Amino acid sequence: QAASSRHQEQKLWHLVDTCWGRAMAHVTFIARSMDGLLLVETWDDSNKVSANLKSQAKQLLRKMQNMPPKCSVDCAGNQVFHYSVDNGVVYMALYDDNYPKNLAFAFLDDIHKLFQEELKREFGTGSVDYRSHIETIEKPYYFIKFDRQITKKKMEYRDPNSSKALQRLNHSLNDVQSIMRQNMTEILERGENLDSVSGKASKLREGSIDFKNTTRSLSFQTLVQKYGVPVVLGLVVVLIVCIKFWKR
Fold this sequence. Notes:
This protein is of the alpha+beta class and 248 residues long. It has 7 helices and 6 strands.
């Protein structure tokens, strides 16, 4: 048991050593999961994120309703988005793909806990439905001041010699094994295909309604052509009879 414990500790410190010198999250997002509305985002000084990747990140945030609650999404340039969704909020960060996955999700978990405290300060404690409050937010970057706490937490993860880093790794070492890994291009293409199918279905519904309206119009025209003349003649006869009757 002691040997197993030492082996586990050596494995943890190896992971810590491997992430030393590597950049932390290049960008961190907190967004609303139902539509991807950005609540806060932070960037590192190196600004390694391309304009195309920024665009893909925003597209990915808007597709969270069709995604698993936790996932790693591979991107171009040997980078990966790790994200976690909880109670209507997405916590997502971009890393180099050689950054330890468990440490990345430990960081997101810490950000999640800090954000819960921020929600309590903003909307109060007790039986408060924070999700409902978040869903009523209309403008982006509502929690822009929270970026200071994200930056502070990132600094904690830069120090591999801290006991906190070891504790985080030890706690999350086995938690990330079941987290899915997907490809950004496939996700976006799948979304485009779904949008295309949805668009076609909408056009079919509109076509069906137009067809029904056209059918009704044609049916009415057919009735008029078939019975219009007899009905008019009948009305004329009735009118003549009525006139003669009143003249008497």
